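My current task is to audit a protein record that another person submitted. What it holds is a sequence and that sequence's fold in token form. Thanks in advance; the entry in question is below.
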Amino acid sequence: MIPEILADTKTRMQRAVEAAKEDFSTVRTGRANTALFQKILVDYYGSPTPLAQLASLNNPEARTIIVTPYDKSALKAIEQAIRDTPNLGVNPTNDGNLVRVTMPELTEERRKEYVKLVRSKGEDHKVHLRGIRRKSKDELDALKSDVGEDELVRAEKELDVLTRAHVDLIDEALKRKEAELLEV
């Protein structure tokens, strides 16, 4: 029973780390990146639809993203959704066939704001990891009557090692993103 709990915990923690990396990729840096647009929801015929399902995203130049909708009638809605997205600070242009988004240069002050935002997101993901650890510890404690004290102590140590390793992975991703944000 203990190995199943630890395996399940490891899987959930790996998913949490992947979610953290994905979340970090949505914070913009000085260069254009199509990952910034992955979580944008467009009001398409009354239902919020991810932009990636409505259009292809290309990155032809360092600071330009070209959004080519599959359905030309969604062009205005896509343009509006991009314009209304917080933390992007872009003004898309629509030429009737596609939407061109030019990313402005980031000021030093704005870069520091983004670093704070990324650190906050990183801390939120670490809290989530600790929540997974707590839930697994409770599951282990529920087994107290079925298994020996030594096995529980060993399992808790293994759980702590697992948690530390995944927190370190989030810290590494956070460091990389901070360096990317502060790079001029």
Remarks:
- The chain has a mean pLDDT of 89.
- Strands lie at 41-44, 47-50, 55-61, 64-69, 93-94, 99-102.
